[in-house]
TrEMBL record:
Name recorded for this polypeptide: tRNA (Mo5U34)-methyltransferase
Record-level GO BP terms: methylation
Gene Ontology MF: a single term: methyltransferase activity
Cross-referenced Pfam families: Methyltransf_23 (PF13489)
InterPro entries: SAM-dependent_MTases_sf
Domain of life: Bacteria
Native species: Microcystis aeruginosa NIES-2519
Alphabetical keyword list: Methyltransferase, Transferase
Length: 261
């Protein structure tokens, strides 16, 4: 990994630190809201999503909640967090800039920050944005157009065909929303090309005040996840002070490399 000062001026990081990829303007224009209403929506977004989840979220059918129930509420909640976390997300984009290459999957891509950043990377050939929420798809398409990104470089999916393979998989603030994170981790392993990278984090916690009722916190499921992660993947060190981790497949080295002292 190249850790020189060029990281500070990479297109995605510099643009995000300037204005979060113009997120606030995109949101206002996409939803046709005046500035005062937008600011009010952003201010109450976290509490509004938590209240909705306490009422409508169920682990028996979590997909329905994200596809049908959250509507604009999730856009506001995700946007509020991104707008208030520029330094943290900027560091995350540095990591993506370091290791993103070839065909990239942004799994559970939300409002598209990571997919858009990957699309700005000259080493990335194609970005697959995958999310259950149809409104998120519309918003990310809108954002990509506003940012004048190459439309041929971005593809949109709600499910990933098993035959697709990737050089980089991004899964940020997603795995704790899934009923079986271990099963998804095994899919990531199968989807990665040899030498491919998995950029991932997790937050298996419902919050000190139950503000994240849609987060998984079952100890047995979490233990299974970490056992699989430690068995199938090898962590790659990075210098950024963030919760995001980078991994490669834990595959045996060629025999000639194993014998070197």
């Amino acid at each position: 990994m190249n850790r020189d000062s060029s990281l500070l001026s990479s297109p995605s990081v510099a643009e995000f630190k300037r204005n979060s990829f113009d997120l606030e303007s995109h949101l206002q224009n996409f939803l046709q809201l005046d500035q005062e209403i937008l600011q009010t929506k952003l201010a109450i977004a976290k509490d509004a999503l938590a209240a909705l989840a306490h009422q409508d979220f169920s682990w028996t059918n979590p997909d329905y909640f994200y596809q049908e129930k959250v509507k604009e509420t999730y856009l506001f909640e995700l946007s509020a967090w991104h707008l208030s976390s520029q330094e943290y997300i900027g560091e995350t984009l540095r990591l993506i800039d370091d290791y993103g290459s070839g065909k990239v999957l942004d799994f559970g891509g939300g409002i598209g920050t990571h997919a858009l950043a990957a699309a700005m990377n000259s080493r990335v050939e194609q970005v697959i944005y995958c999310d259950l929420n149809p409104l998120h798809h519309e918003f990310v398409r809108f954002r990509a157009k506003q940012l004048n990104l190459d439309a041929n470089k971005l593809s949109f999916y709600t499910e990933i065909p098993d035959q697709l393979k990737f050089d980089t998989i991004i899964c940020l603030d997603v795995i704790e929303h899934l009923p079986s994170p271990t099963a998804q981790l095994k899919k990531f392993y199968d989807w990665l090309n040899p030498g491919g990278k998995l950029i991932i984090n997790w937050y298996f916690f419902k919050g000190f005040n139950q503000e994240y009722p849609f987060h998984l916190d079952d100890p047995k499921i979490i233990e299974s996840f970490f056992q699989t992660l430690q068995k199938d993947f090898l962590e790659i060190f990075h210098p950024y002070h963030i919760t995001v981790r980078c991994y490669r497949k834990n595959q045996a080295l060629p025999e000639e490399n194993q014998t070197r002292g």
